[in-house]
Amino acid sequence: MAKRMSDVQSGTSSLSSFSNKDQEIHYLQKFLKEKDKVIRQMSDDSKSLQRALETIKSKMKESGNIVELRRELKEERRLNEELRDTVQRLQKELQDLQDVSVRRSHQEDSDIEDMVQQALHISVRLDKQLMEVIKNDEVVNGIATEDQRTNIRKDNELVRRLEDDLEIEPDITRHQIAEYEDRILQLKADLTEETKKVVKLDKELISERNAVEFLKTQIEEHRRMAELKQIRESKLIEFLQTKLKASLENEEKLRNDLASMNMEVENASRNLPNFAATVQNESDRTSENLEESREHNAELREDMENEMSIKYEKLEIPMEERERLINSLALTNGLKKILEVDLGRTTEELTLASNHSPARERKGDNVSQNNNQMVGAGQSAVSRATSTSKIDKKRHAANEQQPESSREKKKYENHKKRLYKIQSIQKVRPPSKISTRVKAKKALELIKKQMQEPSSDSELSEDERSIEQRQPIQPIKSPNSSKKQILTKSGACIIYNVPAKSGR
C-alpha cells in the first residue's frame, strides 16, 4: 500500500502532459477498484472467521458424547460388580452344597449303622426272650402261652418290618447318593460355566478398561486440541482486528488522497486548454527545427564527401612515393651489407697482395673506387628518401594553412580516413634470404673477374655501377591488385604490398 501511495504521489508530481494526466486518472480508478476489492475481501474474511468461531463454540458445547460414554462406563462397572457378586454367591452355594452332601452322606452312614445296631439289639433281645420263654415253658409248663405267642408275633412283625426297612434303606440311600452325585456334577458344570463367564467378563472388563483409558486419552487430546484451537483462533481474531484497523486507517488515507487527487484533476482539467496550446506550439517549433537540422546535415554530408575525395586523392601520391622509397631503402640496406662484407674481404686480400705487384695495386684502387661508387648510390637513395619526407612535410604544412572553418567541418572525416588508411596499409616484406644470397654471389663473381682480368677495369666498373644503382626497370602488376613485382637488371624480383584503391 505504501509503495502504491508513493507511486501515486510521484505520478501526481510528474504530471507534465495531458496524456500523463489521463493515465493517472485511469490508474486512480483502478486503484479505487482494487481498494474496494480489498475491503470486500476483508469483510468476507471477518464473516468466515465469525462462522468458524460459532462452529467451535457449538463443538465446545456439544459435550453429550462424553457424558454418554461416562454413563455407559458406570453401567458397565455396575454390571461387572453384579456379576462378581453372583459369582461369589454361586461359589458360596456350591461350597454349601458340597458341605451338605458330605454331611448327609455321613448322617446316612451313621443312620444305617444305628439301624443295623438296633436290629442286632432287637435280634439279641428276641433271642434272649426266646431263651427265657423256653426256660419259662419248661418252668411254668405253658403258662401264659397265648400272651407270649402274641408278643412273639408282634416281635416277629417288628423284626420283619425292620428287615424290610433295612432292605429298602440301602436302595434309598443309593438313590439319594446318585441324586447327590448328579447334583454335584451339575453344580461342577455350572461352576465351570460360571468360571468361563467370569474369565470372559474379566476379559471384557480389561477391554472396557482399555477402552476407557483410550477414551480418556482421546478426551484429553480433544481438550488439548480445543484449547490450542481456541488460542489460535484468539490470536487470529487479534490479528484480524489489527488488520481491520489498519485497513480502516488505509481506507481513510486513501479517501483523503482521492479527494486531493480529485482536486488536482479538477485543477488540471481547468488548465488543460492552456497546456494543449503550449504543447501545440512546442510541436510546431520542434518540426521546424527538425527540417532545419536535416538540411544542415545534408549540406555537411556533401561537404564531408567532397573533402574526403580531395584528401584521398592527395594522400595517394605520398603513399606511393613512400612505398617506393621504402623499397629502395630496403634494397640499399641489403646492398650495403653485402658490400661491407665484400669490402672487408677485398681489403684483406689487397693487404696480402700489395707487396707483390703494382698491377694488383691498380686493381685494388679500381675496386675501392667501385665500392665508393656503390656507397654513394646508397647515400643518394637515402637523400632521395629524405627529400620525399621533406616534400611530405611541406604538403602537410600547406594543408595546415587551410582556413580553420573548413578544417573544423571536415575534422571527423579526416580522422576516419586516416584510420582507414592506417588499417589498409600493410607492412612491406623484407627482402628474402634467397635474393640476398644471389646478390652476394653475383657481387663476389664480379670481384673475382676484376682480380683475374686487370685490363677490363672500365667494363667491370660499369657493371658494378649497374649493380649498385639497382634501379627498377619494369614494374609488373599481378592479377591481385594489392601486390606489385619489380624486376631489376640483375634479375632479382622484389614483391611489395600496395593497398587496394577505392572506386574514386
From TrEMBL:
Composition skew (Polar residues), residue ranges: 366-389, 469-485
Keywords, sorted A to Z: Coiled coil
Domain of life (superkingdom): Eukaryota
Sections of the chain in a coiled coil: 39-100, 177-204, 237-310
Region (Disordered): 350-419, 447-485
Name of this protein: Uncharacterized protein PF11_0207-like isoform X2
Organism: Temnothorax curvispinosus
Taxon lineage: Eukaryota, Metazoa, Ecdysozoa, Arthropoda, Hexapoda
